[in-house]
Amino acid sequence: MTASDRDRDILARTLWGEARGEGLAGQIAVAWTIRNRVFDGKAKSWWGEGYAGVCLKPWQFSCWNQNDPNYAYLSGAKPIPAAQFAQAQRAADQVMTCAVPDPTGGATHYYATTMPKPPVWVKGAKQTLELGRHVFFKDVP
User: Fold this and answer.
1) Judging by DSSP bridges, how do beta strands 134-138 and 109-112 pair with one another?
2) Which of 78, 80, 90, 141 has the fewest CB atoms within 10 Å around its CB?
């Protein structure tokens, strides 16, 4: 698997893990927050290198935490439903190739509205979009 194939696979798995209940537009928005971290304008990014590095950075995307119920699917121990994974792959492809514009306005963070309360990093951040069950932010202190 080449680096770009691995990046695509890890990005698609992350989209499924983080936004499988969203439509294509919601997955594209989540993918753009990841892309915005990959291409943050710095030579060496704190976020990690490439899509896989950003997605797999510890404690950034909860679906990759080993105690998360989705981890078994993301790691390949259980199969992701084919139609759901195909949608996540479409979202990954469209964002990796810039075939769709960034609906998040440059967001690098989001949280699910299903959380009991917003994360502490929301204070001082600029909200850019609310779509489905996710709220997106940039300029996070």
Assistant:
1) antiparallel
2) 141
